[in-house]
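Appendix B, record 7
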Amino acid sequence: MAITFAVAVNDRTIFGNSLLASPCFSGQHEHEILAQENFISAATAFNDAIDRSANDVMVFAHQDVVFPSSWPAQLNQAMEYLKIHDPDWGVLGCWGAAPDQPGVGYIYSNGLGLLGQAFEKPVEVQTLDEVVLILRKSSGLRFDERLPHFHFYGAALCLTAAHRGMKSYVIPALCIHNTQFNLVLPREFYASYKKLKQLWPSSLPIQTSCIRVTRYDIHKYKRQIREGYLKYIRRRTIGATRVTDVNKLLGCLDLCRSS
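C-alpha coordinates (predicted):
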Protein backbone atom coordinates (compact mmCIF):
# COMPACT_ATOMS: atom_id res chain seq x y z
CA MET A 1 0.00 0.00 0.00
CA ALA A 2 1.51 3.28 -1.11
CA ILE A 3 1.03 6.08 1.42
CA THR A 4 1.49 9.83 1.15
CA PHE A 5 3.19 11.31 4.22
CA ALA A 6 2.55 15.06 4.53
CA VAL A 7 4.72 16.97 6.99
CA ALA A 8 4.65 20.64 8.01
CA VAL A 9 8.35 21.49 8.08
CA ASN A 10 9.97 24.53 9.68
CA ASP A 11 13.34 22.97 10.53
CA ARG A 12 15.10 20.81 7.94
CA THR A 13 17.55 19.43 10.52
CA ILE A 14 14.79 18.10 12.78
CA PHE A 15 12.95 16.76 9.74
CA GLY A 16 16.08 14.99 8.51
CA ASN A 17 17.08 13.58 11.91
CA SER A 18 13.61 12.28 12.71
CA LEU A 19 10.96 11.60 10.10
CA LEU A 20 13.25 11.16 7.09
CA ALA A 21 15.46 8.87 9.19
CA SER A 22 12.51 6.58 9.98
CA PRO A 23 13.27 2.88 9.41
CA CYS A 24 10.12 2.54 7.27
CA PHE A 25 11.78 4.80 4.69
CA SER A 26 15.12 3.01 4.61
CA GLY A 27 16.02 1.52 1.25
CA GLN A 28 13.56 1.58 -1.63
CA HIS A 29 9.92 2.26 -0.82
CA GLU A 30 6.78 3.28 -2.68
CA HIS A 31 5.65 6.01 -0.32
CA GLU A 32 5.36 9.71 -1.18
CA ILE A 33 6.73 12.34 1.23
CA LEU A 34 5.48 15.92 0.93
CA ALA A 35 7.44 18.50 2.94
CA GLN A 36 5.07 21.42 3.41
CA GLU A 37 7.07 24.59 4.08
CA ASN A 38 6.25 28.30 4.46
CA PHE A 39 2.52 27.94 5.18
CA ILE A 40 0.68 30.20 7.64
CA SER A 41 -1.11 27.30 9.35
CA ALA A 42 -1.26 23.54 9.51
CA ALA A 43 -4.67 23.58 7.82
CA THR A 44 -3.44 25.43 4.74
CA ALA A 45 -0.30 23.27 4.57
CA PHE A 46 -2.20 20.01 4.75
CA ASN A 47 -5.05 20.98 2.43
CA ASP A 48 -2.42 21.81 -0.15
CA ALA A 49 -0.94 18.35 0.43
CA ILE A 50 -4.35 16.74 -0.06
CA ASP A 51 -4.65 18.49 -3.43
CA ARG A 52 -1.18 17.28 -4.49
CA SER A 53 -1.24 13.76 -3.05
CA ALA A 54 -0.65 10.89 -5.46
CA ASN A 55 -2.22 8.37 -3.05
CA ASP A 56 -5.59 7.95 -1.37
CA VAL A 57 -4.22 7.06 2.07
CA MET A 58 -2.55 10.08 3.66
CA VAL A 59 -0.57 10.41 6.89
CA PHE A 60 -0.13 13.90 8.36
CA ALA A 61 2.71 13.91 10.87
CA HIS A 62 4.92 16.18 12.91
CA GLN A 63 8.41 16.63 11.50
CA ASP A 64 9.88 14.98 14.63
CA VAL A 65 7.97 11.69 14.36
CA VAL A 66 9.86 8.45 13.71
CA PHE A 67 8.03 5.53 12.06
CA PRO A 68 9.41 2.02 12.75
CA SER A 69 9.73 -0.37 9.81
CA SER A 70 6.55 -2.22 10.86
CA TRP A 71 4.38 0.91 11.01
CA PRO A 72 2.87 0.84 7.47
CA ALA A 73 1.92 -2.82 7.93
CA GLN A 74 0.26 -2.01 11.27
CA LEU A 75 -1.70 0.81 9.61
CA ASN A 76 -2.78 -1.54 6.83
CA GLN A 77 -3.91 -4.14 9.38
CA ALA A 78 -6.01 -1.53 11.22
CA MET A 79 -7.59 -0.41 7.95
CA GLU A 80 -8.42 -4.00 7.04
CA TYR A 81 -10.17 -4.37 10.40
CA LEU A 82 -12.16 -1.18 9.83
CA LYS A 83 -13.04 -2.24 6.28
CA ILE A 84 -15.23 -4.85 7.97
CA HIS A 85 -16.36 -3.06 11.14
CA ASP A 86 -16.60 0.59 10.00
CA PRO A 87 -15.82 1.10 6.30
CA ASP A 88 -16.89 4.76 6.48
CA TRP A 89 -14.36 5.73 9.16
CA GLY A 90 -13.16 9.33 9.13
CA VAL A 91 -9.81 9.90 10.83
CA LEU A 92 -7.21 7.60 12.39
CA GLY A 93 -4.27 8.38 14.66
CA CYS A 94 -1.76 7.00 17.14
CA TRP A 95 -2.77 9.01 20.22
CA GLY A 96 -6.05 10.60 21.12
CA ALA A 97 -8.70 11.32 23.70
CA ALA A 98 -12.12 9.95 24.58
CA PRO A 99 -14.71 12.19 26.26
CA ASP A 100 -13.69 10.87 29.69
CA GLN A 101 -10.07 9.91 28.99
CA PRO A 102 -7.37 12.39 27.85
CA GLY A 103 -4.83 9.76 26.81
CA VAL A 104 -5.78 6.83 24.56
CA GLY A 105 -3.30 4.84 22.50
CA TYR A 106 0.24 3.54 22.65
CA ILE A 107 3.15 5.78 21.68
CA TYR A 108 6.76 6.45 22.66
CA SER A 109 7.52 10.06 23.55
CA ASN A 110 11.04 11.36 24.08
CA GLY A 111 11.41 12.44 27.71
CA LEU A 112 8.26 10.60 28.83
CA GLY A 113 8.84 7.05 27.57
CA LEU A 114 6.00 4.74 26.61
CA LEU A 115 2.57 6.31 26.98
CA GLY A 116 -0.57 4.22 27.19
CA GLN A 117 -0.78 0.47 26.85
CA ALA A 118 -0.57 -1.97 23.96
CA PHE A 119 -3.93 -2.87 22.41
CA GLU A 120 -5.12 -4.97 19.49
CA LYS A 121 -8.03 -3.24 17.72
CA PRO A 122 -8.88 0.37 16.79
CA VAL A 123 -10.48 2.32 19.63
CA GLU A 124 -13.03 5.07 19.00
CA VAL A 125 -12.11 8.52 20.36
CA GLN A 126 -13.51 12.04 20.29
CA THR A 127 -10.30 13.71 19.07
CA LEU A 128 -6.83 12.74 17.88
CA ASP A 129 -3.48 14.24 18.74
CA GLU A 130 -1.82 16.06 15.84
CA VAL A 131 1.37 13.99 16.17
CA VAL A 132 -0.08 11.58 13.54
CA LEU A 133 -3.36 11.89 11.63
CA ILE A 134 -4.54 9.56 8.88
CA LEU A 135 -7.35 9.99 6.37
CA ARG A 136 -8.40 8.91 2.91
CA LYS A 137 -8.33 11.59 0.24
CA SER A 138 -11.48 10.06 -1.20
CA SER A 139 -13.36 10.75 2.07
CA GLY A 140 -13.64 14.42 1.15
CA LEU A 141 -12.42 15.49 4.59
CA ARG A 142 -10.30 18.62 4.72
CA PHE A 143 -8.68 20.70 7.43
CA ASP A 144 -10.51 23.80 8.67
CA GLU A 145 -8.56 26.82 7.45
CA ARG A 146 -10.46 29.08 9.83
CA LEU A 147 -8.29 27.58 12.59
CA PRO A 148 -5.05 29.58 12.89
CA HIS A 149 -1.49 28.46 13.60
CA PHE A 150 -0.45 24.84 14.24
CA HIS A 151 -2.62 23.67 17.15
CA PHE A 152 -5.97 21.84 17.51
CA TYR A 153 -6.27 21.14 13.79
CA GLY A 154 -6.53 17.43 14.60
CA ALA A 155 -9.39 18.01 17.03
CA ALA A 156 -11.16 20.20 14.48
CA LEU A 157 -10.73 17.53 11.80
CA CYS A 158 -12.24 14.85 14.06
CA LEU A 159 -15.18 17.11 14.93
CA THR A 160 -15.76 17.78 11.24
CA ALA A 161 -15.74 14.04 10.58
CA ALA A 162 -18.19 13.42 13.45
CA HIS A 163 -20.50 16.12 12.06
CA ARG A 164 -20.59 14.07 8.83
CA GLY A 165 -21.33 10.85 10.69
CA MET A 166 -17.76 9.52 10.46
CA LYS A 167 -15.92 8.15 13.49
CA SER A 168 -12.31 8.68 14.57
CA TYR A 169 -10.08 5.93 15.94
CA VAL A 170 -6.75 5.41 17.66
CA ILE A 171 -5.04 2.45 15.99
CA PRO A 172 -2.40 0.01 17.31
CA ALA A 173 0.50 1.37 15.26
CA LEU A 174 3.36 2.34 17.58
CA CYS A 175 5.49 5.32 16.55
CA ILE A 176 8.07 7.55 18.24
CA HIS A 177 7.61 11.25 18.93
CA ASN A 178 11.09 12.77 19.11
CA THR A 179 9.68 15.86 20.71
CA GLN A 180 11.06 18.80 22.60
CA PHE A 181 8.74 18.54 25.59
CA ASN A 182 7.59 22.10 26.30
CA LEU A 183 6.20 22.70 29.77
CA VAL A 184 4.95 26.17 28.78
CA LEU A 185 2.86 26.50 25.65
CA PRO A 186 2.99 29.48 23.26
CA ARG A 187 0.31 32.13 22.82
CA GLU A 188 -0.66 30.55 19.51
CA PHE A 189 -1.88 27.47 21.40
CA TYR A 190 -4.40 29.51 23.37
CA ALA A 191 -5.45 31.52 20.29
CA SER A 192 -6.23 28.21 18.56
CA TYR A 193 -8.03 26.97 21.68
CA LYS A 194 -10.27 30.04 21.58
CA LYS A 195 -11.03 29.61 17.90
CA LEU A 196 -11.85 25.90 18.24
CA LYS A 197 -14.28 26.77 21.01
CA GLN A 198 -15.93 29.41 18.82
CA LEU A 199 -16.21 27.04 15.87
CA TRP A 200 -17.66 24.08 17.80
CA PRO A 201 -19.81 25.39 20.70
CA SER A 202 -22.34 22.58 20.30
CA SER A 203 -19.59 19.96 20.81
CA LEU A 204 -18.37 21.27 24.18
CA PRO A 205 -16.81 19.88 26.26
CA ILE A 206 -14.11 18.81 23.80
CA GLN A 207 -11.51 16.49 25.27
CA THR A 208 -8.10 16.64 23.59
CA SER A 209 -4.90 14.86 24.56
CA CYS A 210 -3.44 18.01 26.13
CA ILE A 211 -6.39 20.00 27.49
CA ARG A 212 -10.16 19.89 27.97
CA VAL A 213 -11.98 22.66 26.10
CA THR A 214 -15.00 23.79 28.14
CA ARG A 215 -17.54 26.59 28.26
CA TYR A 216 -15.98 28.33 31.26
CA ASP A 217 -12.29 27.52 30.48
CA ILE A 218 -11.56 26.08 33.93
CA HIS A 219 -8.91 23.69 32.62
CA LYS A 220 -7.30 26.44 30.55
CA TYR A 221 -6.96 28.74 33.56
CA LYS A 222 -5.52 25.93 35.68
CA ARG A 223 -2.93 25.20 33.01
CA GLN A 224 -1.97 28.85 32.63
CA ILE A 225 -1.50 29.20 36.39
CA ARG A 226 0.75 26.13 36.41
CA GLU A 227 2.70 27.47 33.44
CA GLY A 228 3.17 30.81 35.19
CA TYR A 229 4.61 29.02 38.20
CA LEU A 230 7.01 27.00 36.04
CA LYS A 231 8.09 30.02 34.00
CA TYR A 232 8.48 32.69 36.67
CA ILE A 233 9.10 30.73 39.90
CA ARG A 234 10.81 27.51 38.82
CA ARG A 235 12.44 29.13 35.75
CA ARG A 236 11.85 25.88 33.88
CA THR A 237 10.04 25.71 30.54
CA ILE A 238 11.58 22.69 28.77
CA GLY A 239 11.02 19.12 30.00
CA ALA A 240 13.12 17.27 27.40
CA THR A 241 15.08 18.02 24.24
CA ARG A 242 15.12 16.11 20.96
CA VAL A 243 17.53 13.28 20.24
CA THR A 244 19.62 13.58 17.07
CA ASP A 245 20.36 9.87 16.73
CA VAL A 246 17.28 7.85 15.71
CA ASN A 247 19.04 4.60 16.62
CA LYS A 248 19.26 5.79 20.23
CA LEU A 249 15.51 6.39 20.26
CA LEU A 250 14.81 2.98 18.74
CA GLY A 251 17.07 1.42 21.38
CA CYS A 252 15.23 3.23 24.17
CA LEU A 253 11.92 2.03 22.72
CA ASP A 254 13.09 -1.59 22.63
CA LEU A 255 14.38 -1.30 26.20
CA CYS A 256 11.07 0.08 27.45
CA ARG A 257 9.06 -2.60 25.70
CA SER A 258 11.19 -5.39 27.11
CA SER A 259 11.16 -4.13 30.70
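Remarks on this record: The chain has a mean pLDDT of 95. The chain has one domain: 4-179+240-258.
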